[in-house]
Specification:
Blueprint (H helix, E strand, L loop, with lengths): L1 H8 L1 H9 L17 E5 L5 E4 L3 E2 L7 E2 L7 E6 L7 E6 L5 E6 L9 E4 L4 E5 L4
Antiparallel strand pairs: 1-2, 1-9, 3-4, 4-8, 5-6, 6-7, 7-8
Helix pairs in contact: 1-2
């Protein structure tokens, strides 16, 4: 239920994951996360991105060039009329993670621009 989501996530993460809000730029500690490990959905703990796919995009949000296989769904987003985008959601819980753009680095050319509030991080053993 929505009440359970609110209790589990807290107000800010709830707004991002369940109401498609965007956190302020440069506020996520994951911008500076450099350890090996896996970024997971803060809503359901599903693995989303390997840390080796993370790169510094200069946008102020954690960015990745590819998700783990089958981890996310992509949905057309016309909430900004003059700028159609592709929303990225957790495949398991359908929580809003961010958006994907076609200005990323090789090998994919994609930039998965994620809200840090939608993520958790599990360091690799010994990282």
């Amino acid at each position: 239920s929505e009440a359970e989501w609110r209790e589990r996530l807290g107000p800010a993460a709830y707004d991002v994951l369940r109401r498609e809000a965007t956190e302020r730029r440069w506020t996520s500690p994951y911008n500076f996360e450099k350890r090996e490990g896996v970024f997971k959905c803060a809503g359901c703990d599903s693995p989303l991105f390997n840390a080796s796919a993370k790169f510094e995009s200069g946008t102020g949000w954690p960015s990745f060039f590819q998700p783990l296989p089958g981890a996310v769904t992509e949905v057309s987003d016309y909430s900004i009329i003059f700028m159609p985008r592709t929303e990225v959601r957790c495949r398991k819980c359908q929580g809003h993670l961010g958006h994907v753009f076609d200005d990323g680095p090789a090998p994919t050319g994609l930039r998965y621009c994620m809200n840090g509030l939608a993520l958790s991080f599990e360091p690799a053993p010994g990282a």
